[in-house]
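Researcher: Sequence recovery benchmark, item below. Answer with residues only.
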């Protein structure tokens, strides 16, 4: 019999649906719904689900990662009576051998976890189970969420966007360091191999040290670090500079001439979300940032025989953006100019027109390789065509949003309009970026175009969630169970944001209620799962609200040439 414990999937299925072939997605949804099926019908339901997952694999000749992943992870959780465990083992082993075919390495999290589960339950190999469990990052088998995310969150060291990895993106010349902290590090060996040139300085000195020492250990004999080029003066791109400063090679640091303007923005921003940079981060790490060389116009420099073009840009994240372009390598280090939040969401910054203008600058350079400050940005905005199609549609969206703001529409009305560019089909490469950016674009433009009072009565009161929650108990006389039930119904209807709002209020009003605590956690967990593939900042904040870290996964062999 299938119990919820065997199918630990009160989980909603929000895992990169656009990339899951439809049959596999259907199979996953069916599996996750199994516990809602009445007992007499459940066996038939599961057998039909098995057929669906089998069909998905055979129609794709067993060569599509997500179909093998879906079948392997579901089959591994079915009771032995269904006879699916050998197939699960085959699929999961295949996924391990073909991790490069995964949408990204975050999908390996569940593969390792289910391998550990099979080792433990079926093979009674506890040493093997422990090895796989360590790779999955999970401390034990008590995991109720389905996470395919590449992200991890830790109180001490903050958020990472990708599993730890050092890639030789241009063999012997350019190294990319992912997953050591919030921000990517890049190091370039100059043409005459006399010096190493760093792009950006990371978030914290301890992270910079770990990353740089890992690079030196993986590739011994690299030349000394003589130069660091800073793409913009945000916390996470200059915070580690003190580590590099004390190296014997004493690198010279280049940044935009207006870096201090951006730095003062960063220093004034509320420091209310420790899971971003970790508790080890301190503003002291950025407060005294001073470059040795400042750039205020397009400037060509030559370092160790390597020509580097430094190109100031105005947008779209900070006014002190600097493109770093290597013409001979046709490689652009773009920083965060195309960050989907249009600047940090906590700071009054971001420049939509600047972003569009910067895309035109990229198009003029026509680089073959574009590397951004964070792994997902590099993955998504990896070519000029994607940037151009995205910029075109962002321009259309900007005009529509500004028009609506102008006639007094409030933020909720603009979101509800579901603005879709009429010629979106002609710019297919813009579809995923708009999914990531549209809601943030509305919020950023709304904040930039309005004051502290909005349409109707918006902004007139100053009631917090705690104060609004008073109505539940004191005036509506609802018990904690009634409130928890109502929130559960909101979830069942798909009203996730509404459920989150009320769960937050209820948590303040019924602090001792187990029912409210449980539904509150469920709501936050569903938000985290919903955003795990495409909105890292929401993922971080919901994880913070849950008080629940997400451990990094460890993929075997973290050095690669690609
Ligand atoms: Zn950044």
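Model:
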């Amino acid at each position: 019999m299938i119990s919820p414990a065997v199918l630990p999937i009160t989980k909603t299925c929000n895992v990169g649906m656009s990339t899951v072939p439809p049959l596999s997605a259907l199979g996953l949804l069916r599996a996750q719904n199994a516990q809602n099926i009445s007992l007499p019908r459940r066996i038939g339901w599961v057998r039909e689900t098995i057929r669906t997952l089998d069909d998905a694999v055979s129609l794709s000749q067993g060569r599509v990662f997500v179909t093998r992943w879906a079948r392997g992870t579901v089959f591994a959780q079915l009771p032995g009576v269904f006879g699916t465990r050998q197939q699960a083992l085959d699929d999961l082993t295949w996924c391990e051998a073909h991790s490069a075919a995964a949408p990204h390495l975050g999908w390996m999290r569940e593969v390792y976890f289910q391998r550990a589960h099979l080792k433990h339950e079926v093979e009674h190999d506890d040493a093997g189970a422990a090895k796989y469990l360590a790779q999955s990052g999970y401390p034990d088998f008590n995991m109720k969420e389905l996470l395919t995310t590449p992200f991890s969150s830790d109180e001490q060291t903050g958020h990472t966007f990708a599993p730890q990895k050092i890639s030789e993106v241009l063999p012997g010349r350019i190294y990319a360091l992912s997953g050591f902290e919030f921000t990517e590090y890049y190091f370039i060996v100059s043409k005459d191999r006399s010096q190493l040139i760093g792009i950006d300085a990371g978030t914290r000195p301890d992270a910079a040290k770990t990353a740089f020492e890992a690079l030196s250990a993986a590739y011994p004999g690299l030349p000394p670090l003589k130069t660091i080029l800073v793409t913009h003066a945000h916390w996470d791109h200059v915070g580690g500079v003190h580590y590099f400063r004390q190296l014997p090679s004493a690198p010279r640091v280049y940044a935009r001439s207006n870096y201090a303007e951006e730095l003062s923005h960063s220093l004034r921003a509320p420091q209310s979300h420790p899971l971003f940079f970790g508790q080890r981060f301190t503003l002291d790490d950025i407060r005294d940032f001073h470059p040795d060389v400042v750039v205020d116009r397009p400037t060509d420099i030559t370092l160790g025989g390597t020509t580097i073009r430094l190109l100031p840009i105005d947008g779209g994240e900070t006014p002190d953006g600097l493109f770093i372009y290597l013409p001979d390598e046709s490689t652009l280090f773009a920083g965060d100019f195309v960050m989907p939040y249009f600047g940090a969401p906590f700071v009054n910054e971001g420049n939509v027109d600047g972003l569009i203008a910067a895309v035109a600058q990229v198009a003029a350079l026509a680089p073959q390789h574009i590397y951004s400050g964070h792994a997902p940005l590099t993955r998504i905005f990896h070519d000029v065509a994607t940037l151009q199609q995205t910029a075109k549609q962002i321009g259309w969206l900007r005009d529509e949003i500004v028009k609506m703001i102008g006639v007094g529409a409030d933020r909720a009305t603009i979101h509800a309009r579901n603005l879709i560019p009429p010629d979106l089909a002609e710019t297919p490469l813009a579809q995923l970026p708009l999914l990531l950016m549209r809601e943030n674009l509305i919020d950023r433009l709304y904040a930039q175009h309005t004051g502290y009072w909005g349409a109707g009565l918006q902004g007139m009161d100053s009631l917090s969630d705690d104060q609004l929650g008073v109505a539940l108990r004191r005036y509506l006389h609802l018990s904690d169970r009634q409130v928890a039930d109502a929130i559960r119904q909101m979830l069942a209807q798909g009203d996730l944001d509404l459920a989150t709002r009320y769960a937050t209020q209820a948590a303040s009003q019924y602090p001792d209620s187990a029912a409210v605590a449980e539904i509150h956690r469920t709501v936050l967990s569903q938000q985290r799962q919903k955003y795990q593939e495409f909105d890292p900042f929401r993922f971080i904040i919901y994880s913070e609200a849950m008080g629940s870290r997400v451990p990094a996964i460890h993929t075997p062999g973290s050095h690669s040439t690609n």
